[in-house]
Amino acid sequence: MTHHLPNSHDLALQARASQVIPNGMWGHMATRSIAAGYPQFFASADGCRVKDVDGNEYIDFMCAWGPNVLGYKHPQVQVAALAQMAAVDSGNGPTEVVVELAETLVSTLDFADWAMFQKNGTDATTACVTMARAGTGKRKVIVAKGAYHGAAAWCSPSLVGVMSDDRVHVITFDWNDIASLDTAVSHAGEDLAAILLTAFRHDVGKDQEEPSVEMLRKARAVCDSTGAMLIIDDVRAGFRLDVRGSWAPYGVKPDLAAFSKAIANGWPLAAVAGNDRAREGASKIFTTGSFWYGAAAMAAGLATVKILRDTDAIAHTRAMGDRLRHGLDGMARAHGFTLRQTGPAQMPMVLFDGDVDLRIANAFTVAALRHGIYLHPKHNMFLCAAHQPEDIDRALEAADLALRDIVAAGVVPT
Amino acid sequence: MTHHLPNSHDLALQARASQVIPNGMWGHMATRSIAAGYPQFFASADGCRVKDVDGNEYIDFMCAWGPNVLGYKHPQVQVAALAQMAAVDSGNGPTEVVVELAETLVSTLDFADWAMFQKNGTDATTACVTMARAGTGKRKVIVAKGAYHGAAAWCSPSLVGVMSDDRVHVITFDWNDIASLDTAVSHAGEDLAAILLTAFRHDVGKDQEEPSVEMLRKARAVCDSTGAMLIIDDVRAGFRLDVRGSWAPYGVKPDLAAFSKAIANGWPLAAVAGNDRAREGASKIFTTGSFWYGAAAMAAGLATVKILRDTDAIAHTRAMGDRLRHGLDGMARAHGFTLRQTGPAQMPMVLFDGDVDLRIANAFTVAALRHGIYLHPKHNMFLCAAHQPEDIDRALEAADLALRDIVAAGVVPT
């Protein structure tokens, strides 16, 4: 089956959207930011499959850009959330589930003594920074160059509408470069509030990179000696790599962590978890939102975290990622391409070697769409627990056809 | 029926929460910020009634602090949202409903040419300010002293963890004071990006105050002559006072508006709506969130806005608010108290005259809880379309008993 894209209903909706939504769509899901040919609008999602508004179905490797970790509409998660919804979602206060969810995070994460909840990943990363400043009375925050921590003024990848004052206390360093981190720490002087790092390096369009244990230990030691807070931005990776928190395999514990995306398998939820060292700062700040006490998303989160903790969902997802990676690798080679595949198998980054302008990646992923798989040309992708070996094998067949198509169209390795 | 509060299950949950949540609860729904005796945790909500975790039922006048506008779990809204949820909520992109909702806002609001969607009220107010700065290339934002525009660093009511740099371009003036507004405008000089005003003055613990037409016209004229953006923060009042936008009755149109709370009857959604003057700024900024494309909340929003537009829900709610207000007024007088009741009837602020330390308000609202109505001692309250005359009359009987109780307990008018 070959899809013809973009199709009429999607184009009609895009035309309507361009009238009533600036640029036709905002933010990371706007398809104009990637290769032409991507459907903008979707009609349904089930397990590891999505269907666009023209009825084309894809085996999905974006997983809603991270929220889908167990499979779209995982039955246990939906039952739990909808049962809570049938009682109360947003009321005059929280429900019992907020306590159960905080207790479950505390007993599951390897560093946490408490938790609080929000709606956006940006809410959580921003709250962590504010808590660190409140707890330490200091201002400087060290982050890695090019890292994405959200769409707030202090961290947005765009400077449009943002003022220099918004980032005056943010200091950058080069990921995994100890000398660069040292320089940043010196620059912060006596005013260091926090070091904030993503779980691993997952910048758009770049090879992904694990944190070196040396960098994590150095960051931990700096925070221990200065009183600053070590913060993991686990928004994108959290609950996909390790249910204890993404740095658990490295044996380095953060003081504060920001979660969102996968925490409730697609229901809108974010969380900050922290240790007792960070509790004072967390107790002092004012952070809130109209829907932050909503119980349905918390019930979804509780169900999701328990499934991830009590089943082999993460190990299975990693195995599926490995199967995809190995298949793609050999297949690309057979067609004359060399792939650079980096990062955890559950969150693969697939780049074509030498493809500086993404010409090959764009041609390949658009061709892949036509053969029924949804990939991304420059952002890390995501696998979920609903992917089965036969889905991966079917996706690899589609990828093979897509590579054949682009070679036939004259897209050759650089 | 008399409730005994707080009860055992609530207290047990509070004790558990204090271990795993800083301060036991965060933000505006933390009951420690109001009178002792309030239940912190709720079990269910239906129409205009809420039930706490000990099974005590209340006629509710907080409406989840604003989100409940049609009645908790309004059937049409729930059916629409759950049908969308059964297809897809968060996917790889938005669904058709984002276009329908934007089109519906454009055709319903009296000033809007486009819309965008978020999750928190703070997301929407912050996006408006960023859009204004991006569109004008200027930095200063004028706001009324003491107004709440969200929990972000640039506007948070708390300065803990916030730096002076975060607010260096925010200028305040006194609500409805033209001379004060003039001074603020002069202070902004050539650098004015926006004037940002709530729909009406609804500061906590203060008499509410309508905007004077003079102030709104002045703000509009300043924006017209300088190129700045006039922004209405309609997060709290939007879709409760006037479906066209809360300034429609004054004949003054904003360039940008922030909505949240009532827009989807409790489902987590926020929106920015703007005119073509503001479109350029909106097109240039980067603003996004993991769940901002979630279709279920948008389907809830579409159903909610259509009901508010096509029925007498708002007029009915206003009539119920008037009924409550007039009843309370006479009743308080009969017990020797003088009430100061201000603001729109759908969002009443009820203060006891001379009650500077809220001693009377706290005693009254806690006594009212015991008689089965949920009121707030110092925040504006909310009515919804599910309130019926018999609910109001029942609430008035409870208020009468509560006033009798506090007089008997020696709480006397000041």
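The first helix of chain A runs from residue 8 to 20.
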